Amino acid sequence: MNRRFLSRAAVAALAVMATGLLAAPVHAATDPTPTPKAPGNDLSIAWATVACDPRGTTAADAAAASRLNGVLQGRLRGYMTAYRVSCARMVIKAVQDRDLNTRAATIAITTTIVESNIENISEMVDHTSLGLFQQQDNWGSREQRLNPAWATNAFLDKMIRKYPGNAWMTAPIGEVCQAVQVSSYPTRYQEQAADGQRIVNEVWPLVSAPVTAVEGRLYREPSGTIAVIAGGAPVRFASMDELAATGYGSAPLTAVPAGWLNRLPQEPRDGTFLRDAANGAISVIAGGAKYGLTLAEWEAMGRPGSINVPLRVINEYGRVPADGTLLRNHTDGAISVVAGGAKYGLSLAQWERLGKPASVNVPIGFINTLGSDPRPGTFLRDVANGSIYLTIGGAKYGLTWAEYERLGYPGFANVPIEWINTFRAIPRDGSYLRNVEDGTIYVMTGGKKDALTYEEWDRLGKPASTNVPVGFLNQIPNA
Hints:
It comes from Nonomuraea jiangxiensis. This is LGFP repeat-containing protein. Residues 1-28 form the signal peptide. Keywords: Signal. The chain is α/β, with parallel strands linked by helices. The protein has a domain at 59-207. It is built from 18 helices and 20 strands. Strand 10 and strand 11 (342-345) form a beta hairpin. Helix 4 crosses helix 7, helix 5 (102-116) packs across helix 8 and helix 5 crosses helix 9 (188-207). The termini are far apart. The model is unreliable at 1-29 and 34-40 (pLDDT under 50).
């Protein structure tokens, strides 16, 4: 006889022996007590089960089971199936329907791992226990205990009674499971808690409708990480104190699965307004840079909405937008392109030739912080023909493809040729050029280049230099 037959025979014998006891009336308890042990947890025995989801399993269930088999560390490693995932789905859905935190799902799933290997067991394998949580008949009817939603809610009801005031959110998971289940083996739950969390992390997104990141809303991952959405990106808080200091101490939290924050863009979109909660100062973000608005500028822009963030977040931004950023004067609509910390005002025709790229509305004060001469080593690309120019000291040099490769394929900004044509051929005095081939450094003096010895360069304070091709150096006369 196989083990399945033996188990059924044993159960039948126990049932006959206990007939007298079972004939006694059963009275409902305020806190029903489930089975004192977990007989359904023997993976070598195929207990009779019923479906958890009336619609059956899905391809997503099977895919999740495959992924989980590679990450679980406890008893179910290698044993996850589409059926078990479908059962986990139904448990987690019951948690979500009550608007409870993912920790409640982890507690419930951990319990089902220990009690039933996440199977909806339909035969009474230990006394009168049935279902995912192996609940005895003083919990409810057979139909109720085999209904994952009902069984999960019964479990959660008792959990909340045992841990009022959301104390279950901070108590050890194994302790909470034991308080509800009253098992003869109290240590078994905590041993599976990590896998319970892994299963919730994987299955939670299968149950919930995709969570949309909403501006200004707070989201919490199972790890406890909390972030506010600003410009479509998560701004994470370093501590609960920082959260409170930023003005979100009593704000509601939306639970999201592990890794959800990392799947969002990690930088706020251009045109986002960040507000220092400490003093109310508002900054606009463009091209990875910030500009602090005066009250008059903020009012002139129509008092746009802002998101409270810690000051340290605002301080992480520089003051110079990235190359290729387009800034639009909100008062007259004039657009400037940024490259190397400098700006160039575009005509409508030039903007159209660039492909009508998106621009960021900003005050003229932001635009005026930028000069007209890019920093040494800025690369400009003629959008008309693709030629790339190296700029230094107010001069330009058109690179061959080989020279561009030799310089390491540096990034560039697409600009109109009219801006490039404003640069001269010879860098201004005081510019330092470094031969990319042999490392020789030259200083511009009187419109000519002068090669420096290491000692001379050292005495000058080791000023920064710009790598340039030999071809550029050859067009500059020697001192």
